[in-house]
């Protein structure tokens, strides 16, 4: 697996343009005053399927010729990537097989089903997800669309940061949550190509801090029993993703569960925008470390807005 080039990212953007939304960038005077700088929010919660994942999934699926899609596509995901693969497969006229942990939010399970995918539920462990996915591949011949460990996923997710910098080329920092690392690696890579003076910062729940520990040690460290309200980040960072993160990320901040909840509520109340807990991880990191961003221009990626409305944490 080779690290995507700038040409790969540009080709991905061209390939997926008609399948995605060029999401808006919003600001909040209240948050600017809280931070003491200018903060810009790239709202991927307004993306198709309600999350940035549509970018990477579309890039992989649409890169296959129609005759190569006959056996469909398979993936494992707790929700947003599952929805993206389901919708992109539907648009491509292909079958989608989705492995989801039993504890995935009901709102995400329902959305995957509505897109016409066939769902297989499994135990909420990474090993169970991978095993169930492999079984379906063997039985159906479906092509795997990995949630994050794939250069085509990374290139697709990188288009978000590319759009961000095209509109705001003078950002001092960009902040993204990190789980498997597709968006994190893609964003860091895009900045290294088109805006090398913009520093990439990642945010992670303290309960699921494998990327932070890997970053500090220089060696890939997994997470055994991930538990966090940020359900989209309950996976270990991928190997290729980590290689990019090691090279191109400036810092990784950890945040606590209550800080995530407080940040989520703040965006709901002040900006009137629905964001999910995984997105709030980046907001929490911004607020927790706001001294670093005083007088600076900071771009923050709101990764998704798929929330179980009858089970809000506030």
UniProtKB/TrEMBL annotation:
CDD domains on file: Thr-dehyd
GO BP terms: D-serine biosynthetic process
UniProt KW keywords: Lyase, Pyridoxal phosphate
Alphabetized GO MF terms: ATP binding; L-serine ammonia-lyase activity; magnesium ion binding; pyridoxal phosphate binding; serine racemase activity; threonine racemase activity
Pfam family, one: PALP
All copies of domain Tryptophan synthase beta chain-like PALP, residue ranges: 16-304
Cofactor list: pyridoxal 5'-phosphate
InterPro entries (UniProt xref): TrpB-like_PALP, TrpB-like_PALP_sf
Family, similarity comment: Belongs to the serine/threonine dehydratase family.
Protein name: Threonine dehydratase
Lineage: Bacteria, Pseudomonadati, Bacteroidota, Cytophagia, Cytophagales
